[in-house]
Amino acid sequence: MSVMSEVSGLNLKLVNLFAELIDKGFERGVAFVLYHEGQKVIDIAMGRSESPVGREIDSRTLFPVCSTSKGITAALINMLAMNGQVDLSRTVCSYWPEFGVNGKAGVTVREAVAHMAGIPQRPDFESFEEICDWDRTCAKIAQLEPIWTPGSRGQYHSINYGWIVGEICERATGRKFNDLLREMITGPLGISDELYFGLDAAAFGRAVHFEAQPKAKAQVTTAQAQATQVPGDLMAFVNRDDVRRACMPAVNGMMTAGAIARFYAALICEVDGVRLIDEKQLEMATTLQASENSFPRCFGHGMGLGFALKGPAGNAGAFFGHGGAGGSEGMAIKNSGISFGFTKNLYDTHIDAPNHTHWMVIKEVFDAFPAAAAADGGFYR
Question: What is the b/e burial string over 329-352, where b = at least 16 CB atoms within 10 angstroms of the residue's CB?
Fold first, then answer.
């Protein structure tokens, strides 16, 4: 069977799947984009948004993606490491001196990028104004005391991750995080108006809110862990206008499915002449750093340098990426040249559905591409 036949069949199956889920009320608006060997071959956008205003979903719709944000943040510091601007073996405080207090002087950049810094707890934020202020938030992060010995194990730094890694990037380069993002990732890939950490006025008009599933607001995979890290309910938090304008590179990304897919494609191959990281850095980034016993099962085998690893036990980094509360996903499968982005606006448990939508999507991808299925370590089987 040719690749185009596989693509055509997969496209039809996904359109039918999404139509059924929307019709039954398990989804409201969804988008899915798949790249194969650097070329976009599937682009689906279906359904509606009722919030903040009612409108049809299209390929330019910006969705909240929560922790899917972390994959982009992780790539940025990996790129700086590849370029020699960040040394993963150095201590965080060698770049950010204020960080080296209360038992954190020995925390390395590698440990911070792999969720092993020992400070997953939420800082004591006094207001939404404070949490939306990068400098004030980073100052509070720097004062946190580890709740275990840094480097001894991992634990998901659900909201702190973006500020920890982002501030290292800023201190190492003297550049603002969003300037680095545009210069190194979104600009070269032509997705500067499709991937945001902080919406501008024009982008607000294309951005949808999370909407609650009628029976429940929490998604069972990651939302419970992450919700404890933000003030109040996570869905309500990421829907706030002030949060959507701020830069929180672990939790408040607003993206199109196409931007996510294109980004992951450029990690594993060239996309219109752009390759974000070389093979050596990719191998380092997708080598297990913190084991699966340290993380919820949704992270597969555990963490590489900021990426969840879901390949076979002997090659965990063959299938890597990062998903987010609410159900979005961004993943890449190295040997098959496949990457995809999935976004949705109904923040739900799917308690009455056969499975979570992103699981069903990935299973369809595996059925269409046997080589991709071989990269799965059994997580989706």
Answer: bbbbbbebbbbbbbbbbbbbbbee
How far is Cα of residue 20 from the mean position of the Cα atoms in its chain?
A: 26
Nearest-angstrom CA–CA distance, 50 and 48: 6
Minimal CA–CA distance to 247: which of 338, 142, 159?
159
- Tens-digit pLDDT profile for residues 229-267: 566 788 899 999 999 999 999 999 999 999 999 999 999
Residue 234 lies in a domain: yes
CATH of the domain at 237: 3.40.710.10
**CB distance 49 to 209 below 8 Å:** yes
CB of 345 closer than 8 Å to CB of 213 = no
- Would you say residue 88 lies in a domain? no
Reported pTM? 0.94
Q: How many distinct structural domains can be found in the chain?
A: 1
Return the sign of the alpha-carbon dihedral for residues 248, 251, 255, 260: positive
Residue 101 belongs to a domain: no
Q: Which of 347, 125, 348, 133 is nearest to 231 (CA)?
A: 125
